[in-house]
Structure formats: C-alpha cells, structure tokens
C-alpha cells in the first residue's frame, strides 16, 4: 500500500487503487502474525530468562545471543498493531506517532538481528581459527561495547525509514493507511533519491553485506575444522554438531529474509512505471504480506537455533520452569562449552598440523 502519488487536504489518490487488497490476506496474515507473536514472545523470553538467571553473561556468545533475543522482543511487541492493521483491510487506527515508531522498530530489528548474527559469526571465526591471537579481543567488555555500537548504529540507520512513514487518508474512503510518504508538494524533503537510498541501504547493509561476511566466516571455519580432523578424528562428531548449528543459523536467516528482499527490490525497481503497469504492483502487493510473514518468522527461529539445540540449555530451562533454586549450576553452558571445546581442539589440531609440516621441512 505504498503507491501514493499526490497529496490533498481531503486525502490522497492511489495510482493503482488499493492493490493487494484480498479477503484471504486480511484473514490469514493476522492469524500468522498472532502465532509469530505468541511463539516469539515465549521463546525469546525463555532465552533471556535462562541466560540471565542460570548461564549469566560470562561469555561473548551469551552476550550476543541475549541481545539478539532482546532485539526480537522489541520488534514482536509491534505485531499486534500490524495484525489489526491487516485484519481491518489496511486501516491504521493508532495515529501517526505509532505508525512511525512501529515502522522504525521493524527496520531496527532487521539491522540489529543481522548485525548480532554477523558479530557472533566473527566471534566464532576468531575463537576457532585464531583462538590464541584473538584472546585479548574476545572479552566480555569487548562484547558489551560491540553491542552498544550495534544498537546505536542500527537506530541511526532506522531513523530515515521512520521519517519516510506516516498516516494517509484515502480519497473517497474512510481508510487510513500507514505507509511510505512519496514526493509531493507537502513533503519536499521526501524525494525519490531519499527513498531509493533507504531501499538500497536496507538491501545492502541490512542483508547482502552482512550475509557475505557471515558466509565467509563459516567457510573459513569449515576449512579450519576439515584440516583439524586429519589430526583429531575423535572430535569429528562434535565438530559436525557445531557446524550443523552454525549452518542452521545462516540457512534460517537466508530462507526467512530472501523472499522479502527480492520483492522489496522488485517494488523499488517498478516504482517509476506504476502508472503504466498496475498488474505488476498488484502481484507485488499481494505477495509482500506473505514474504513479510516469512521474514518475521525469523524472530521465532532464533531461540530454537541458538538456544534450544543445547542439552544444558534445556536442563536450565526445565529448572526455570520448575522454579528451581539458583544454587547448583551447570558447569558449562550449551553454547560456550561447545564453542570453547571446539576452539581448543581446533587450535590444538592446527598447531599440531603446523608442527608436523615444520618437522617434515627439516627432514
């Protein structure tokens, strides 16, 4: 619902009408939003509670995972408003401030999620491939400072998207939209170049560049572990388990966000030709709510991938649900124990490989 062309005191005109308005969207999408809201709130709240109460913030991985869960929670609180917005046929009854704030939190979550995933990937790369040299950098203080930078940088990147959003009264209709402002006489600051910059920033900084960094880190981790297996065959099963967890995290983010990024790019490229081809706009506006549902589902996947894969996490979760005292703690948290052990085995194997090569050269 973003094809706004002209501004007027009695409302705005849409070049292609209310494209993408279908009863099955108004029924199905709010139900999906409701399920994502319940699952995401419960899952991420458990992650926060378990890490804070039992695992504590003693490792870099736990700090990043905790902040990732908090990021998802800040976004999930906006889902009931978006569900009502869709269920009422794209009518926004909450006013201009909440329209801007909700849009900001959506983009804010996109940036914080991918940045925390990237930071976690870089940390895993340093811990496994360069465990000794990176020890001075991989501290709790470093992780906390990194989180502060990510929160502030993501907020700055999200502000332009909030500025470009507002409520719109539709001509000859009682519908009030919460959509993107387009260039008009009343909005001289909102230019086509400004909107294009926001879209490109969302695609590049919010997906493509971080994803390339993540893939690069995991490829280097995989290469290091494959080389280490020739020295320590016994650690193969545990290494495979860690690799599967890392691959699942990357794959989940990719599958959840790629459809929305593709249709977002299509929407950006077809904006200049909307008046000539409303059929394309109809396809994009019909598919966009479902791609958004898939993207939002990533907020439910994160707790499963980063928390519930560990046996110790499940044990601590059961202790939390049973209201067990905080006296006896599991000695090694799920994420940190596996990663630390893997880092030690990988570094030991890599050093043995280097020594064997050196001895062969001497001979």
UniProtKB/TrEMBL annotation:
Gene Ontology MF, one: C-C chemokine binding
Cross-referenced Pfam families: 7tm_1
TM ranges: 24-52, 64-85, 97-120, 141-163, 194-221, 242-263, 283-309
InterPro entries the record matches: ATII_AT1_rcpt, ATII_rcpt, CCR1-9-like, GPCR_Rhodpsn, GPCR_Rhodpsn_7TM
Domain G-protein coupled receptors family 1 profile: 43-306
Annotated compartments: Cell membrane
Protein name (Swiss-Prot/TrEMBL): Type-1 angiotensin II receptor
């Amino acid at each position: 619902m973003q094809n706004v062309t002209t501004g007027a005191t009695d409302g705005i005109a849409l070049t292609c009408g209310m494209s993408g308005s279908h009863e099955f969207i108004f029924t199905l999408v709010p139900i999906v939003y409701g399920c994502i809201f319940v699952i995401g709130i419960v899952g991420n709240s458990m992650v926060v509670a378990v890490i804070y109460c039992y695992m504590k913030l003693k490792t870099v991985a736990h700090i990043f995972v905790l902040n990732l869960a908090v990021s998802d929670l800040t976004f999930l609180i906006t889902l009931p408003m978006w569900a009502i917005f869709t269920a009422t046929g794209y009518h926004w009854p909450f006013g201009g401030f909440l329209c801007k704030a909700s849009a900001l939190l959506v983009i804010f979550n996109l940036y914080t999620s991918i940045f925390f995933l990237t930071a976690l990937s870089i940390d895993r790369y340093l811990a496994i491939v360069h465990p000794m040299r990176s020890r001075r950098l991989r501290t709790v203080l470093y992780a906390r400072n990194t989180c502060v930078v990510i929160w502030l940088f993501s907020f700055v990147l999200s502000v332009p998207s909030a500025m470009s959003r507002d409520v719109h009264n539709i001509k000859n209709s009682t519908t009030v939209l919460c959509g993107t402002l387009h260039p008009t006489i009343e909005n001289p600051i909102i230019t086509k170049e400004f909107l294009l910059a926001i879209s490109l920033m969302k695609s590049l900084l919010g997906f493509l560049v971080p994803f390339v960094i993540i893939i690069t880190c995991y490829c280097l981790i995989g290469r290091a572990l494959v080389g280490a297996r020739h020295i320590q065959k016994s650690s193969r099963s545990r290494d495979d388990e860690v690799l599967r967890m890392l691959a699942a995290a990357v794959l989940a983010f990719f599958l959840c966000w790629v459809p929305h990024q593709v249709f977002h790019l299509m929407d950006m490229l077809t904006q200049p030709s909307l008046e000539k081809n409303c059929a394309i706009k109809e396809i994009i506006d019909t598919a966009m709510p479902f791609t958004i549902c898939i993207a939002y589902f990533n907020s439910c996947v994160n707790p499963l991938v980063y928390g519930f894969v560990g046996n110790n996490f499940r044990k601590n979760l059961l202790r939390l649900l049973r209201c067990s005292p905080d006296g006896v703690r599991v000695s090694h948290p799920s994420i940190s124990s596996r990663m630390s052990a893997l880092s030690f085995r990988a570094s030991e194997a890599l050093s043995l490989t280097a020594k064997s090569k050196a001895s062969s050269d001497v001979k």
